[in-house]
Amino acid sequence: MTPVAASWLPLSPGERSVAIEVLLGGPLSRTELARRLDLSAGSLTRLTKPLIESGLLVEVPEAGVPAEARQGRPSQPLDVVAESRSFIGFKVTEDMVYGVVTTLRSEIVARYDRPLPSREPAAVVETLGEMTDTLAAAHPRLAGIGIGVGGLVEDRSVVGESPFLEWRDVPLAELVEERTGLPVVVENDVAALVEAETWFGAGRGLERFVVLTIGAGIGYGLVLGGKRVPYAEEDRGFGRHWIVDPNGPLTPDGARGSAVSLLTIPNIRYQVQAATGRERTYEEILGLAAAGEPMPARVIEEAARALGTLVAQIGNFVLPQKILLAGEGVGLMDVAGKTVTETIRAQRHPLAAPIDLETKVSDFHDWARGAAVLAIQVLVLGATDA
Amino acid sequence: MTPVAASWLPLSPGERSVAIEVLLGGPLSRTELARRLDLSAGSLTRLTKPLIESGLLVEVPEAGVPAEARQGRPSQPLDVVAESRSFIGFKVTEDMVYGVVTTLRSEIVARYDRPLPSREPAAVVETLGEMTDTLAAAHPRLAGIGIGVGGLVEDRSVVGESPFLEWRDVPLAELVEERTGLPVVVENDVAALVEAETWFGAGRGLERFVVLTIGAGIGYGLVLGGKRVPYAEEDRGFGRHWIVDPNGPLTPDGARGSAVSLLTIPNIRYQVQAATGRERTYEEILGLAAAGEPMPARVIEEAARALGTLVAQIGNFVLPQKILLAGEGVGLMDVAGKTVTETIRAQRHPLAAPIDLETKVSDFHDWARGAAVLAIQVLVLGATDA
DNA sequence: GCCACTTACTTTTGCGGCGAAAGAATCCAG
DNA sequence: CTGGATTCTTTCGCCGCAAAAGTAAGTGGC
Prior knowledge:
Two copies of one chain form a homodimer. Chain A is built from twelve helices and 15 strands. Chain A is an alpha/beta fold.
C-alpha cells in the first residue's frame, strides 16, 4: 500500500471532539464549546491551541449578533478552515463515474464526470486515476478519496459483491491508492449518502434518523445514536420483500405489492406502460398524473399511499426524529404529497409526535458528495464512528 | 418528602460500571471485568475494593471450570450479594394490586396480592402501604419500591394520566414515600417490563431490542443502545392505528384491520362471539382453533398472520437483535406459531439475519417484577440510564 | 475620561483516575 | 523443589480535567 498520511494529525480524543463539534456546528466560541462538550473553559484553551497552530481551526472575526444586549469581552468564534484540505468523491454507476471535489465542510467546489469505458476493475481504476489526476491539477491539498458503489462493501475497502458492475471481492481501495497515492475509502453508495446526511445534512446531530431512497431501487438507512446501523441484506434488493399492499400490482421485479413494485421508477414506468401501451419517462408520468390523466394518476396515487404507509410504519416502529426521502424518485411528493401525508396521518396515533419528513431530490453528484464525506470522516478526523 | 437513603452509596462512575457489569453478568473475576470494561488490572483492584468493603460484592469460591487446562493462580470471581437488599415491586390494575419481593438480582422471593377497595388515590396508597408493612415484616433490608401502572407516568414519580384508574396528575411516588418511608419509583407498566427485560431478561446486553406485548391491549417498547426510547403516544392506544391488514376485521375497539382489532384478547373474543354467537374465553378459543374448529381457527390464523406481518415490519425497519413477545395474549404462538414464522419469512429478505424471536407468557407478577427492577436501577445504582 | 461591571479567555495549580510495571500469591508440571 | 503461568496487588508517574486566580476587552455610569 502507498504511504498514507494517516489521519491529518494525531488527534487526542478531546481534540477530535472539538474538531468535530466545530466542523458540524459552524463557528463556535470556546465558551460555547465548553458548554456543549461539558468541559471547563481552561480545557478548551488547552484543546484548541494545537488545533489552531496546525491550521485546522482559525479565529473568525465575530459574525454573531450585531450589537444587542451583549456585554463583556466579545467571544472569539472558532471555525474550521474549510479550504485547508480538499476531498474527492466518486459515485460509480454501471456506465458513468460522477466526481466531485469538496471542502472539509463537504461543500462541492467542482464537478467532473466521465463515461466508463468498461466495467473491468482495471479500467475502472484507470478511469478513476485519470479523473483524480485532472482534479488534482486544479485542486491542490487533496487529502483523500471516497468512492461510493452500489453493492456490498466490506471494511470500507473491498467491493464484496456488486451485481451491476459484475464484481466480486475487488480490493478497490487498495488499487486506487496504488494508482493515485492518496488514501481511499470505499463504501456502499446508500451508506455513504446516509453518513453524509448524518454529519452535514438533514440528520445532523439527531439520535434516531432514517433515510429512505427511491430511485431505480429502494434504499434504507438507519442511524441510531448518531451511528449508522449496518445490516446483512443491505443493498441486496430488500425492498422487494417489503409488502406494503398485498393486493397491489405485480411487476416483474418484486413480490406483489412490494415497495419495489409500487415505488421505484422502473416499476412505475412498467405499470403505466402495461396499462396504456405507451412508454413514458418518470417525469412525463408525474406530469400526466398532475394533469389528471386517469391511469398515471391512479399509479401515482397508489405509490403515494404506499409511501405514506411505509413512512407511517417506520415512524411507528423506529420513532425517528426525522425521515429523509432522497433519490430521483421522490418527485412523487410534489404531485401527490397530500396523499402521502394523509396516509401517514391515518396510520399514526393522533398524539404521536408528527413525523419530521424532509424531501430531497438528489442527483448523482449528491451521491458522490456522500462518498467524499466518508473520506472526511475517516481520513481527517480518524473517526470510525461519530 | 421522607428522608431517603438516596443511592446506596455514592458510587463513582467506574465503580458503578463494575457493579452493573457484575450484577448483569453473573460472577466475574477481576481480570474478566478488566477485559470487558477495557480497564487495567490495577484499576480493578482499586474499584472493587470499596465495593467489597461496603458489602455490595463478595468473592465467591470459584464456581467455573472444573479442572481443565487451567493453570496459574486461580481467579477470584466476584458476585453481588443478591440478598443484601430487597425490593418491592407492585403492579396496579383497576381492581387488584400484585406485589412481589425481589433480590438485587430481581429474583422473586415472595408474592403478595390484594384486591383494590377503591380507585381513589388515597385508598390505593393505603393499600400499597399496608402491603408494604406486611412484606417489610418478613423481608428486612428493603431498599425501595417500584410501582408499575398502566398510563402515562412523568419523571418516574407522577401519574399524569391513567384512564383505567381515572387519575390525572397524582404524585404517587411522593404519597407512597410519605406512607412507607421508603424511596419509590413509579413507571408505566410496559416501560417497567421493558427495562426489566433489558437488564435481566431477554434483552440483556443487546444494542437493539424490541418488546411487543399482547394482552388487553398492545404494548411496544424500543430499546436502542441499551436505553429505552420514550415516546409521546406511549400507552395511549397506539396499536389502534397500526393498520396491519386494510381488509381485516372491524371491531368496536380500533380501526379496521388494526393490530388491536386483530390481536388483542378482547377483540379476538369479540370476533368469535360475533361470528358464532357464543362467548368464549381466550384459552377456549385457542383450544378450539387447535382442534380445527373453522371459525376460531380462521380468527387465530388471521391473528397469526397479523403478528407475523408486524414482526417482519419491525425486523425490517428497526433491525433489532431480538424481539420479545410478552403478555397474556401470546398463547397464540403455541397454536399458530408456524403461520407466524411463515408470514415473517415471506416479508423478509432471504439474506436478512433471521429474527431472534422469543416468546414469554407473562403474568401480573412479571409486571410487578418489572417495577422492582426500576427500583433497583434507580435506587441502588443511581442509574438514570444504563 | 475614569471606574465599576460583565463576559471571554488564559494561566496556574492541584487532584483523581488510569496504565505500566514490578512484585506477591497461588496454582500446575515436571 | 523449581520454573512457568496466571491472577491479583502495589507502587509510581502521567495525563486530563476542574477550580481558581489572573488577564483581556468590551459596555455603561458618572
